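re: ur question from yesterday

yeah so i grabbed the chain u mentioned. its 268 aa long if i counted rite. heres the sequnce exactly as i have it in my notes:
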Amino acid sequence: MFESTSSIIDFTRAWGKSNNDQWETLDFSMLKSDFIKTKSEPYVWVNSRCDNFLYKLLFVALNLSQGNIKTLLFHYNLFLSNDQFSCIARRCPLVRRIVFVSWNRIKKVEIRKAIRGWNDLESMTMPPLKDPTYVFQEISKNCKNFRELKVMGRLDKRFALSLVTYLPNLKVLSVRCSVLVKEALILVLESLKYLEVLNVSHSYFVVPISHIDRNTICEKASKLRQFVTCMEKPCIMCDRTRMDCGLSRWHKFKEGIWKDDEVSSLAL
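ran it thru and got these structure tokens back, copy pasting raw so excuse formatting
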């Protein structure tokens, strides 16, 4: 089933609270699927017993929450099925923050439908997508208070163009431990007029940037309230990102390190 039995015990202990308690956070950040990676879509196979057990957890948690959940947190190796995600989205209409980076088994139509129902959404931590336009379009139309985004993956020109087109009012952005394309980063700095905080710690550029490029980036970032970079030399996390080509293999690291972020509002 799940790899972390202790986390299940901790979670079930929380169920012992009075039903009168208004749950505001559904925290599955310690629960991992029993899965095997595959070469064809959805690129992962999940043990059916694991799926069934997760269904039971969700059934109890969502019933006890009575629709009051505002924060959804999922482990990067917890692969929800399309039906599981649909159920969560339907039963949690008040969500303001979601940390969910394993979308392999979720259809685009369900992602769209979920965001349409999350009118109070303010913050999202998401996986790298070749084309995130459909996500940002729905956020732009339905989530007027959306203000912060964390992307656990690559920031390229296509991603940046979609971001600045549909989320021009974004205030906080984190792309730590990611691959950066120089033109994409400059586009973000030039176009997101309301951006206040940008975290690029432990990330690296696909093509090494020159001293002139570095100065240009720093100059454009000077308008920000906070521009977070890695100043430590040498840096273990920077080396890890480079070795993993910007798609960090978090399972090799200390458990829970994927939750870190230099921006406190995005850390877990």
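noticed a couple things. The chain has a mean pLDDT of 88. also The chain has nine helices and twelve strands.
anyway ttyl
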